[in-house]
Amino acid sequence: MTELQSTLVDNPAAQATTPLSAGDRCDSCGAQAYVRVTIPSGSLLFCGHHAAKHKDQLFAQALTWHDETFRLSPTAPEVTID
Ligand SMILES: [Zn+2]
């Protein structure tokens, strides 16, 4: 497990898909973030609302589009992050 964690820290591409936590906040409104967009100049965090709003503009230039909006669905299985 320690080996995996150090790999994530040393590898930005792996960090781009690290699960989002309750401490990650939307860059537009400060709500809990459910989408992380990695673009050449950095990364952006968005709530479900703002991810949808900016998707058309950002998706084409995004290096990764890490989307956890499925967690917003009341029928989705519970995701526990310690
Ligand atoms: Zn937002």
Furnish the topology, listing elements before pairings.
Blueprint: H1 2-10, H2 12-15, E1 35-39, E2 42-46, H3 48-58, E3 64-67
Antiparallel strand pairs: 1-2, 1-3
The structure holds zinc ion (ZN).
What is the number of E strands? 3
- Integer average pLDDT: 83
Helical content class: 25-40%
Distance between the termini: 15 Å
List the domain count as a whole number. 1
- What is the 3D shape? globular
Structural class: alpha+beta
Cofactors and ligands present? Answer: zinc ion
Strand order of the largest sheet: 2-1-3
Q: Count helical runs.
A: 3
Rg (CA only):
13 Å
Low-confidence stretches: 4-9
SSE order: HHEEHE
The portion of residues forming beta strands comes to 15-25%
- Quaternary structure state of the chains depicted: single chain
Query: What does the main sheet amount to?
Result: 3 strands, antiparallel
Question: Overview of this structure, please?
Answer:
By secondary structure, the chain is of the alpha+beta class. It has one domain. It is 29% helix and 17% strand. It is built from three helices and three strands. The protein has a three-stranded antiparallel beta sheet. Strand 1 and strand 2 form a beta hairpin. The chain is globular, with a radius of gyration of 13 Å. About 7% of the residues have low confidence. The structure holds zinc ion. Zinc ion binds next to helix 3.
